[in-house]
Amino acid sequence: MSHVIPASLFAGGLVLGVSGALLLQRSPAPVPVAAQPAAQQAPSPGPPSISKPATVVDAGPSSASSLAVSNSQLGPASYPGPVSDFLQHAAYVSGYDRRLRHPAWTAEHLTAASIKRPPSPPGGSGQNVDRALSVFREDERIPEMFRARMVDYLRSGYDRGHMVPAADAKSSQVAMNETFFLTNIAPQVGAGMNRDYWAHTEDFVRRLTARFADLYVFTIPLYLPRQSSDGKWRVTYEVIGNPPNVSVPTHFAKVILGVGAASSNDRKLAPPPAPSSGGLTSKVGFATHDSHMLALGAFVMPNSVIPNEAPLESFAVPVETVERAAGLTLFPPAIKSAAKRLCDTVKCQIIVREFGDKSKSLSAPAPAPGAVPVRSQTM
Ligand SMILES: *[C@@H]1O[C@H](CO)[C@@H](O)[C@H](O)[C@H]1NC(C)=O
Ligand SMILES: *[C@@H]1O[C@H](CO)[C@@H](O)[C@H](O)[C@H]1NC(C)=O
């Protein structure tokens, strides 16, 4: 019933780059799929303020007047448009990058209850949330010029990779449908990545709801430089579509904050505690209800085939590494310093299994096998 949990994200609010503070709430009433663009509210010219739950959105011509003073030097050019489109949904919020035409970031609040299907009411005519009923769709909240198009992905060789996984949004069909907006999608290598290691990582994140009362999860496409033979660092990436429209990230980050121990009911599915190194685990006293417990983990994975044997922990990086690479402040310093390392708290390990989920895939040519995660980049 109340599978939609009203809860504010990151206790005091969450700072996202220049977009100011943002208070994520699971909306009690699901947002209809054909949602209106989020509030037309110009970003404040002042420094981001934590106390103000701001929604930074389109600052198009309609809001230009409010910026007239600060932008007077720009003359008729005025304010050049939004930093990112802030999009709100039943199961997640996201920022869209109009230049790259995929999400700049997505954020979710997961609990053991939120990732479950709603219970069927007695009588059996319950709502059956099914991803087979969802279809990918262009997001008409984004102006056509900046929109990712279905044709861009067609025969691109890449999967339409969910940033917020559909399986995280089983609370309602609306919630699941909303994960199929192309504003929640980025081009991902299919076999060996989106359909395999990345899917296993998403599953790992969901299993963490058995350990933590609340999980806050960012998924962030990244463009990381690689050193060329002349010694200089460059970012190179493919752009799909004809004409080219949608950029292909070089990497993807998952950033996970676990808050408070899950109740013992929810702990049955918990990943086992870390082995010997996990002396910490016992010190933390996971079994007790420690509502102040914080654990923070960040993983950066290449957008290429990753062998299932690669240890999940080998992709772990400090959260600052992701923040620096993404240009986003994901957590206030107090959270970062108070949080334990996720992989010291739980066993960071994927479980390899067939998802049998081919609905994500387009008939994509498999990428060259044997590609190895590239971890030498500076981030
Ligand atoms: C989900 O999407 C499908 C396909 O577009 C549509 O037929 C269905 O009505 C949607 N369901 C809800 C609850 O919005
Ligand atoms: C994106 O692709 C479409 C064709 O599918 C094209 O008409 C459009 O101009 C492209 N958009 C951009 C911004 O290049």
In short:
By secondary structure, this protein is α+β, with helices and mostly antiparallel strands. It has eight helices and 16 strands. The protein has a domain at 95-345: Extracellular Endonuclease, Chain A (3-Layer(aba) Sandwich), CATH 3.40.570.10.
The coarse overall form would be globular
Bound small molecules, by name, code or SMILES, are: 2-acetamido-2-deoxy-beta-D-glucopyranose
The CATH level-2 architecture of the domain at 95-345 is identified as 3-Layer(aba) Sandwich
β-sheet strand percentage: 15-25%
CATH class term of the domain at 95-345 = Alpha Beta
Q: In the CATH hierarchy, what is the superfamily of the domain at 95-345? A: Extracellular Endonuclease, subunit A
Distance between termini? Answer: 43 Å
Largest sheet: 8 strands, mixed
Tally of contiguous helical segments: 8
- Summed over residues and divided by their number, the pLDDT gives a mean of 76
Indicate the structural class. Answer: alpha+beta
Question: Which helices and strands appear, and what pairs or packs with what?
Answer:
Elements (H helix, E strand, L loop, with lengths): L13 E2 L5 E2 L62 E4 L4 E5 L4 E9 L39 H4 L5 E4 L10 H6 L6 E4 L1 H5 L2 H11 L4 E11 L3 E2 L5 E2 L4 E2 L5 E2 L3 E11 L17 H6 L9 E9 L13 E2 L1 H8 L6 H6 L1 E2 H4 L34
Parallel strand pairs: 14-16
Antiparallel strand pairs: 1-2, 3-4, 4-5, 5-8, 6-7, 8-13, 9-10, 11-12, 13-14, 14-15
The structure holds 2-acetamido-2-deoxy-beta-D-glucopyranose (NAG) (2 copies).
Pfam families: Endonuclease_NS (PF01223)
Enzyme class: hydrolase
GO molecular function, one term: nucleic acid binding
